[in-house]
């Protein structure tokens, strides 16, 4: 339902995952399971593990910089930053606001969407709706998680 909104599109993409990998075989050494069982039940072969000093916003910043570079925009061009996460840097402050500060997007509105797996899709939808309205020419949407700290 786009209604009278202007058409919008994706002009830059970015992605980042931490370099440390935990395979199903690594996991099987910790719990009573196997690579075959995990793969059959989840389709997962490996997961990325963030270092202890790496926050969700750190991952988001790297991906955002890539997307901004590809789009040919700088921090001052970003009108809004929407960050989908269920693993925020801190409990009571927006990780989008922290990411906004780290990027230097001083004029951007910034907020989190916390909807677990559906968060990225919801953030993209909200971002598209804002991008189709006056005053929001460049909306930066990012999904970032550091689940390696909270899942066992």
From TrEMBL:
Keywords: Fatty acid biosynthesis, Fatty acid metabolism, Lipid biosynthesis, Lipid metabolism. Residues 111-152 form the Beta-ketoacyl-[acyl-carrier-protein] synthase III N-terminal domain. GO terms for biological process: fatty acid biosynthetic process. Signal peptide: none annotated. InterPro entries: ACP_syn_III_N, Thiolase-like. GO terms for molecular function: 3-oxoacyl-[acyl-carrier-protein] synthase activity. This is Beta-ketoacyl-[acyl-carrier-protein] synthase III N-terminal domain-containing protein. Belongs to the thiolase-like superfamily. FabH family. SUPFAM superfamilies: Thiolase-like (SSF53901). Pathway: Lipid metabolism. Pfam families: ACP_syn_III.
């Amino acid at each position: 339902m786009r209604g009278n909104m202007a058409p919008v599109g994706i002009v830059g993409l970015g992605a980042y995952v931490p370099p440390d990998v935990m395979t199903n075989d690594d996991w099987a050494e910790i719990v009573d399971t196997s690579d075959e069982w995990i793969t059959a039940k989840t389709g997962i072969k490996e997961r990325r593990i963030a270092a202890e000093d790496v926050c969700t916003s750190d991952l988001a910043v790297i991906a955002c910089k890539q997307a901004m570079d590809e789009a040919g925009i700088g921090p001052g061009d970003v009108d809004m930053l929407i960050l989908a996460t269920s693993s925020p840097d801190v409990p009571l402050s927006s990780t989008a606001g922290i990411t906004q500060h780290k990027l230097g997007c001083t004029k951007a509105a910034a907020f989190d969407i916390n909807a677990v797996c559906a968060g990225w899709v919801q953030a993209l939808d909200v971002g598209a709706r804002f991008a189709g309205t006056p005053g929001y020419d460049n909306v930066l949407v990012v999904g970032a998680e550091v689940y390696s700290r909270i899942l066992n």
